[in-house]
Amino acid sequence: MQANEVLIQNCLQMLLNQGIRVSMDDIAKELSMSKRTLYELFENKNELIYKCIVLFIKEENKKMEDYLSKNHSNIIEELFPLLNLDIYNMTKDRHYFLHDLKRYYPDIHDKIIANHKDFFMSRISKIIHKGVEQGFFKKETNTDIVNAFLLYLFTPPNNGHKEILAKYSIPEIFENTVLCYVRGFSTQKGLDVIEQTLKVKKWNTTKIEKTWIIQ
Predict the structure, then answer these.
(1) Residues in contact with 159: Cβ distance below 8 Å, sequence separation at least 6, in sequence order
(2) What are the boundaries of each domain within the chain?
């Protein structure tokens, strides 16, 4: 790992420990360097935060992918990793971190999420293709269309849905939107896996009460 990457890693750890509003003065002090030197490496705090969040999401995604590959998770857990308690516990800090980012640095948040959506769509495309090949999803499934609408369904409801958000929990909304959609292009084999997974993981759905896949 290069020196600058180590620096970003250390900055990220500080943001995780002390919150995203930590000052550049505090960061410089923690890293035992002058504020001037810090500004020679990063144009401003926004650039530093952006690079830290990019690294954070990269590491979180790697942890999730490593877990899925090693534990032979089924196709539904690959699509909906938060149904798995282990993955939820590994990545739960992501949601709080991104929530603060959206609150205090909305421009950085939007840029980060735009990049994350590209990763999300690529990952979903691979899972859908895999599901078709293994007989979990119908052969006539159009991956491009599925990707576009899954992305839409995974995005939090906007202010026009305040009444729904106030009345129902995220798991209830999830099960009545995303899962209904996936059931539509699933074969009987896929439907069986969905039901088996929900039966086993049902107790964990309350864990995603205040989260969403794409913040």
Answers:
(1) none
(2) 73-208
